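Extended Data, record Hydroxymethylpyrimidine/phosphomethylpyrimidine kinase
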Amino acid sequence: MKNLLTIAGSDSSGGAGIQADLKTFSAHRVFGMSVITAVTAQSTRGVFAVQDIDPGVIKKQIEAVFEDIAVHGIKIGMVSQIQTIQVIAETLKQYPYKNLVVDPVMISKSGFDLLQPEAKAALISHLLPMATVLTPNLPEAEEITGMKVQNLEDMKKAAVKIHSLGPAFVLIKGGHLQGDAMDILYDGSSFTTYTTKRVATKNTHGTGCTLSSAIAANLGKGESIQVAIKHAKAYITTAIEHSFSIGRGPGPVHHFYQLYHPDS
Ligand SMILES: Nc1ncnc2c1ncn2[C@@H]1O[C@H](COP(=O)(O)OP(=O)(O)O)[C@@H](O)[C@H]1O
Ligand SMILES: Cc1ncc(COP(=O)(O)O)c(N)n1
């Protein structure tokens, strides 16, 4: 069994954050574990409150897991504030962690700041250099680089710039583009493009969380970066195709491994 850890925020509506990550891990048949950084009161319609978890308790959660259990891959999502970022970076460095996927979550699709604006610099300086793969969406790539990122050319330029900040691989997600859903991977020398047809749906709550957890799960199972992302892209696309409406806002995606691995 491979053991995967998510370090992220809780979404009470179950579509994003820790809940999406654990569902994704289960669907990939890996054992999911969680370090909760913040609790959000959230629905498909918005985020109504955030309670940050005490940094000392975040540290204890990470230590409790690593002191006892082999961790084959990690996904980091919502990190909320400077102290949270600092304690995660410091504590992970106590261990020989590997396969670290960092999703630099900043603003929810509903427009709420999941990362306090003053914590952006800490995220860039502390967590980016630790990442095996960093997975910004277009607005996050703009925040990290300070440049406009609106088309394929911009995505390539931004990927090179972000790569220079330390992550081994950069995957810029094009979910916010028009037309095909195109993501671009940069490994420091060349680009790989992952393209699928855009699914016509408003139910994309938690797509970024799901993709990054699927990549971590696949890396934890020993897949190469390119293959891990190819399979994760297939997983998120199928999950979006089977997404559904619960509540009045953008609904969640559907987590079933069998949807794209019917024989397994
Ligand atoms: N409507 C869609 N149809 C197909 N794929 C999509 C759609 N929206 C997003 N994706 C894909 O879902 C993944 C998450 O992307 P994105 O929505 O940009 O991230 P985030 O949730 O961080 O904003 C990417 O692989 C992206 O290409
Ligand atoms: C706790 C938490 N973590 C991450 C997201 C981002 O997901 P999305 O970009 O789909 O709003 C979220 N809404 N809530």
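Summary. Residues 137, 173-176, 181, 183, 196, 198-199, 201, 204, 207-208, 211, 233, 236-237, 240 surround adenosine-5'-diphosphate (ligand 1) (CB under 6 Å).
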